[in-house]
Amino acid sequence: MKDIETFGPWEHIHRQDFSPAVQGSVWYPSADATKSTPTILICDQYGSSMDPAWDLLSRQAIQTWDSVIVTEQTAGRGQFRRNWVSPVGNLYASWVWPEFSGSNSANAYQENLLPLVAAYIVARGLELLGIDVQIKWPNDLLYKNRKIGGILIEQRNKKIIVGIGINMASAPSLRTTGPETFMAATCLSKEGFDISPLKVWFHLVESGIHCFEMLIKQIQPSEFIHLLTDRLAWRGKHVHILKNGEGVCSAIIIGIAENGGLLIKKNAKTEVLHSGRILTVE
Q1: What is the DSSP string of 8-45?
Q2: Please, what's the largest Cα pairwise distance for the chain?
Q3: Residues with Cβ < 8 Å from 218, sequence gap 6 or more?
Q4: 187 pLDDT exceeds 90?
Q5: To the nearest 5 percent, what fractions of the chain are helix, strand and coil?
Q6: Backbone angles phi, psi at 233, to 5 degrees
Q7: H/E segment holding residue 75
Q8: Cis before residue 115, ω within 30 degrees of 0?
Q9: What is the Cα–Cα distance from 262 to 275, expressed in whole angstroms?
């Protein structure tokens, strides 16, 4: 087990005893007990931050907007069930989101745009910290064309947990598997940002709740698509795309479709990509 102080200095920490699922954890409530603010649970080494988050949520020990951070993941879950290398020093958080209302707008967000909403909220929050990132469809975050983080959505019985990983102190090396070349990654410390994972997470929770409520209550999904397109990585550029069941192809990224798919131009024809992923940019 790694020392939880890896995250840096702590204030107003309250240690308590919890169930075996969260032994050795730290609750970080608001320093102002009169304010109703989300709880952040900080755990030591875990398979994935999703595991204690789902366990606690199933027992109603955490609620909407509460989150779980782990210092290290031994079996982090990435997109397409890939294992996610998760050493100490980076940010690994699982965040409980609210169940959507029955409005047409909210349903459109949940059914088609949820990963992109999460990516947009994190990108916008990082921008407020001076970290200008772009969104690589559907749920990766890029800094200077290098992967800085990713989003993973899990839903069970209408409950939603958003997994967020950001490379703070280290990044995995470039690797190739079969026809796939996984894009180069970077981390915030290497790019000159001296900020702790906990400080970043506090900021993302605060700014993210405000952004979420603004989107759901004030912004129609079609308008959100325009906001998202401005942050879309490699728009107008040729990229290599791995299409599920069809291998790798070359196409030009045009934008985002209203259903959340990626608009691409391939062989002079416009298509909507619903599954697959962008490998590299030409």
Answers
A1: ----S-EE----GGGTT-EEE--S-TTS----EEEESS
A2: 61
A3: none
A4: yes
A5: 25, 35, 40
A6: -70, 140
A7: strand 73-77
A8: no
A9: 9
Where exactly does CATH 3.30.930.10 map onto the chain? 4-229
H helix intervals, 91-191 = 104-108, 114-128
DSSP strand pairing (277-281 vs 134-136): unpaired
Measured in residues, the chain has a length of 282
| CA 178 to the chain's CA centroid | 26
Tell me the C-alpha distance between 19 and 55, whole Å.
10
Lowest-pLDDT range of 2-16, 141-155, 156-170: 2-16
| Assigned CATH topology for domain 238-281 | SH3 type barrels. (2.30.30)
Mean pLDDT, to the nearest integer, of 242-248?
A: 80
Residue 7: pLDDT above 60? no
Asked if the model's pLDDT at residue 84 lies above 70, the reply is: no
Q: What is the pTM of this model?
A: 0.83
153 pLDDT higher than 50: yes
| Alpha-carbon span 211 to 225, nearest angstrom | 15
Which band of pLDDT confidence, cut at 50, 70 and 90, is reported for residue 124?
Answer: very high
Tell me the CATH number for domain 4-229: 3.30.930.10
Specify whether the CB–CB gap between 148 and 239 falls below 8 A.
no
